Amino acid sequence: MIKPYLFAGAAAVGLLAGCATEANRAPEPTYETAAKSEFVATNYRVADSLIAQFGSGAEGGPLIVATVVNIDALDQSSTLGRLISEQVSARFSQRGFSMVEMKFRSNVYMKRGEGELILTREITEVARVNKAQAVILGSYGMSGAAVYVNMKIVQPGTNYVLAAYDYVLPSNNEIRSMLTRANR
Q1: Which domain holds residue 95?
Q2: How far apart are CA 139 and CA 50, in angstroms?
Q3: Is 2 a domain residue?
Q4: pTM (2 decimals)?
Q5: What distance in Å separates the CA atoms of residue 130 and residue 145, rounded to the nearest whole number?
Q6: Which of 34, 63, 65, 112 holds its CA 20 to 30 A away from the CA of 138?
Q7: Which helix (DSSP H) or strand (DSSP E) does residue 93 occupy?
Q8: Is residue 171 part of a domain?
């Protein structure tokens, strides 16, 4: 006697769950809603701050931009890291800087001591060949509610930090989707 009621109850719950899922589905994003994203504007503000701190200016030679990497795995990045690099580079270019792109993956940093980041010989050589005055690089770290990003302008050869900027991105659906895409 109890079995038919259990079966009927389970079926009703299943049907209601299917209806609820359809009704609660988020609407498809539009161009208007996508344009409200603060991601590009935030990265442009980062670049503007780095430019303001950087004393040499556009006349000192080109800059190299490296892919922003995961602080916990310096040989890995994500869509998030690659987009930050691209947008910061674009802003520097808009402000009159000559930019040299680097599409290396694990050849930009090496670890030393307590997680200190330094430029590898390879990137130092690329900077020398391109007569680059500096390298723009960065890293990000994830927490439950936020992604912490650090960007720097580093002088090749000496590893002196010429400018730096820290900022925080919300760990919302947009940012999480960029973090979960294939790390490379």
Answers
A1: 37-180
A2: 15
A3: no
A4: 0.77
A5: 40
A6: 34
A7: helix 79-94
A8: yes
